[in-house]
Amino acid sequence: MGVEAATIVAHEPIAEATWRLRLDCPSLAANARPGQFAMVRIPDRQDPLLARPLAVYDTFGALADPTCWLPARAAATAKALRYADFVYAVAGKFTTAATRLKPGEQLTLWGPLGNGFTLPKAEHLLLVAGGIGQTALLMLGRAWLAANPAGRVSFCWGAREAGLFGHVEDFRNAGMAVELATLDGTVGTRGSVIDLLDSLAGQNKIAGGSRTAIACCGPEGMMAAVSNWAANRGIDCQVSLETPMACGIGICFSCVAPVRDREGGWDYRRTCVEGPIFDGQSIAWEATV
Fold first, then answer.
1. Under CATH, to which class is 2-113 assigned?
2. For 12-61, how does the pLDDT look when each residue is reduced to its tens digit (9 = 90+)?
3. What DSSP string runs through 246-286?
């Protein structure tokens, strides 16, 4: 982990109340693993004072045009990676202030932080996102396909309505099948992401047991439902918790999550250092409500 000043290269809205941010931050880009995050702060500001955690959405090496959101990915070694992308939803004081930042301005960040995903052993990887949860999953899908060229990845994304989906083509361009669900039925399956999973399973597009693995990120209720859905079918499920954080390095204990112990009870674990990735069955979801 290191602290660095990062210059904004590109920054613009990509969906309803959703923005994509590209930073020139070689150290973070070279070291980030799928599922890790960075603490990002607007410098020289007292309000908001604290940094906020943002999942590393993607990393890039040298680009012909670093302001283009859909560049041909550079064939680069880890040492040549330079840019990191973050996607955030406008929901509070920090993200509202962030929307006013322009290319050329700087942010302060430290990371990468957290444990990151484990590449699952399976034939089919399901990436399941709700809301802004796609931000934790793109790098995992790409890394898993690189390690399992004969495997397949399905990206399942649920939202209230079609206007909340931004840059879905990132997943398609990486070789993943994309399945969408909206509560209002404006695109894809009408209903929740669980309805989408049920539909795919009913079409024999999802096998139970060890042939399939799930990685999930989104609202807690949605991740609890996906974890239960996976457990009922004998499918391993990793979840990326989006617990609010203040420091990102385990000092403040503001990001604790209830994790089950071997005796059947549970205790709090720091999401920033012992997560944010956990086995979905290890979370005491009833204690998160």
1. mainly beta
2. 999 999 999 999 999 999 999 999 999 999 998 877 778 899 999 999 99
3. SSSSSSS--SEEEEE-TTS-EEEEEHHHH-SEEEGGGB-GG
Could you state, in order of their start, the residue ranges of all structural domains in the chain?
2-113, 124-287
Give the CA distances from residue 117 to residues 45, 85, 97, 213, 214, in Å, rounded to whole numbers and listed in that order. 33, 18, 30, 12, 11
Count CB-CB contacts under 10 A for residue 219. 14
User: Hey, what CATH class is 124-287 in?
Assistant: alpha beta
Q: Residue 150: CB partners within 8 Å, gap ≥ 6?
A: none
Instruction: Output the six-digit token pair for 59.
Output: 């990393």
**157: amino acid identity, one letter:** W
- Between CA 196 and CA 95 the distance in angstroms is 30
The per-residue pLDDT for 72 is: 63
Rounded CA-CA distance 229/44 in Å is: 46
pTM of the predicted structure, to 2 decimals: 0.93
DSSP string, 39-75: EEE-TT-SSS-S-EEEE--EEE---S-TT-SSPPPP-
Cα separation of 167 and 138, whole Å? Answer: 11
C-alpha span between 192 and 222 (Å, rounded)? 9
79 CB neighbour count, 10 Å cutoff: 9
